[in-house]
Specification:
Length: about 350
């Protein structure tokens, strides 16, 4: 086993939720990811939609129990000293599949080794092992300091409520219902006048409908600034609920740009330009409004892209007129208007 040390850290991460073109939805999850040698460990696992056990939406007792487990203060939850490193973001059931690893002490050091994909109590390393990942040797002090900081209340807090501002109450009600379906709280208001500062601090984003004037938007931003909180403000592209959900998800993303899989999306009438930082599955969907304001949805691309910039040709009919693109990976969503 290699004697070289890897650095260990933690960073906030998001599994973006959303309404999919086929009518399905995926739940929004905020979690703390493992950072090995300055790079999210999840990025080494191509095309994996998963979250770590350190999710911010689990009860505090479970969150604390997971930390003590990773600190090796309790028995391993699986045979042969194996621990779940990433699991299903929807149900967290081992039967759905999970990435596991042996975590053990070696003197003062902590070692993560024998990574595998596991669907029952026993891992088959020959069949399902991640042979190109690890082993990782971490300095014990660095490892324990990072994890115990979470016990001291230094876990990145998640603000998963959004404030919806607009005049079209029916549309906002549908948007609020959709956001709640994927695990994001949503409140509807005409403005932010008179809202207590403590309540404003609970919002992670503000979504403006297209009917909201510049002056009304400025007043809302001023109310949040006065409350001492800086939240992203989303100018809704179009009255299309799945599109607005995607814009909200983008605004709620956490973590630095270099720790996101999909970092850029632009589009003209004939092609989309994407940039990804690690090998991952990307789904590209077009939303178009016709002259009668009817919505048309079309999936344009679904495949695994390698790190770098990519050009995806677009179906001209799918992006004719007023059109928008949504690109999704397991942890990132990007939305753009199609330029003419």
């Amino acid at each position: 086993m290699s004697a070289e040390y890897a650095t260990f850290g933690l960073a906030p991460a998001t599994r973006a939720g959303g309404l999919l073109a086929n009518g399905d939805y995926q739940v929004h999850r905020d979690f703390v990811d493992f950072v090995v040698d300055g790079r999210p460990l999840l990025f080494r696992l191509s095309d994996l939609d998963a979250v770590s056990p350190l999710a911010s939406d689990v009860p505090p007792s479970l969150f604390t129990a997971q930390i003590h487990s990773l600190l090796l203060e309790t028995e391993a939850p699986l045979p042969a000293g194996r621990y779940i490193v990433y699991g299903c973001p929807e149900c967290e059931d081992l039967a759905c599949g999970a990435v596991t690893a042996v975590i053990e002490r070696d003197g003062e050091d902590v070692i993560w080794r024998d990574f595998a994909w596991q669907t029952d109590e026993h891992a088959d390393l020959d069949l399902n092992g991640y042979h190109g990942i690890g082993p990782f040797r971490f300095r014990g002090t660095e490892y324990r300091t990072a994890l115990t900081a979470l016990l001291d209340g230094h876990a990145p807090g998640a603000r998963r409520r959004v404030l919806l501002i607009g005049a079209r109450v029916a549309l906002l009600a549908r948007l609020a219902a959709a956001l709640r379906t994927i695990g994001i709280g949503a409140d509807i208001a005409h403005d932010a006048d008179g809202v207590p500062a403590d309540e404003l601090r609970g919002y992670g984003a503000v979504v403006f409908g297209r009917s909201v004037s510049d002056g009304e938007r400025a007043a809302v931003r001023h109310a949040f600034a006065t409350a001492g909180v800086d939240v992203p403000c989303v100018d809704g592209f179009a009255p299309v609920v799945p599109l607005l959900v995607a814009q909200t998800e983008q605004a709620l993303e956490r973590g630095a740009r270099d720790r996101r899989r999909l970092t850029e999306l632009t589009a003209t009438g004939d092609a989309a330009e994407l940039e990804v930082t690690s090998s991952c599955r990307v789904r590209l969907t077009a939303y178009r409004l016709d002259r009668l304001s009817r919505t048309h949805v079309q999936d344009l691309f679904d495949g695994v892209l390698e790190p770098g910039r990519h050009r995806v040709p677009l179906d001209g009919k799918a992006v004719k007129g007023e059109a928008y693109l949504v690109a999704r990976t397991g942890g990132t969503v990007r939305v753009t208007e199609v330029g003419r």
